[in-house]
């Protein structure tokens, strides 16, 4: 049994990860900002200081985890309201991450698993599935902050001996999902016509249960030390296939219009939404062979099983 501290334990991925770690018999401590928000069975450590500014001083003397799984972050924001988004992302995703990692190292923590994002590498695959060593081309403040945090943590690990493990998921979906994936299900549920019938680009995704399983491996397997892993489902559907599958599981056949992708891109340019359109219909496949080769990891759930669980949750709320 390992002692594992999870930041962001009350979030979408955090809850799934804590539940799995508990089921595997590990002792799980959730570092949260509000009391009473932990999952059942998770020990709670409340640190309301913000960006881990008080974590070092508040760290309980008796708490010596084997590993920290760092999920808390400032995530990609659709309607950005920060005066300086670059600075806001850096404060939380880089400075605060380093502050937490340094405090963990001082308390004898052996391993630090950092949940980054494929956006730290690129928004598209350029025709070749993205490997971990692909030249970085982050396109927004969120992606740049995640890449900067990766680089800074790697240097910290080299200097101190703290085992750094970096995990880069693409889009994460599952019960309790929010943001664009939830909006897509809302549109299918309401019968909104979607101009995605000809969108044949493939997009890697990861079911939250698969990501939680990969994080559990990264937290406990000695072979993960010092590694960077891309994590995704085995299946890579096209955008149109994804929409049809969601419609089938929701019991609401998707209303797809076969609009040529070139027309959608033109509409994006005319409306100033080229980046959003490219993220929706552009190809983004990630190569997960490294984690399979090093850890022998295989996703325990298929994409169809993940979509079915997500649709079941959505239907239960409507």
Automatic annotation (TrEMBL):
Residues 4-225 form the NAD-dependent epimerase/dehydratase domain. It comes from Paraburkholderia steynii. PANTHER family: BIFUNCTIONAL POLYMYXIN RESISTANCE PROTEIN ARNA, BLL5923 PROTEIN. Residues 137-146 have a biased composition (Basic and acidic residues). This is UDP-glucose 4-epimerase. Residues 126-146 are annotated as: Disordered.
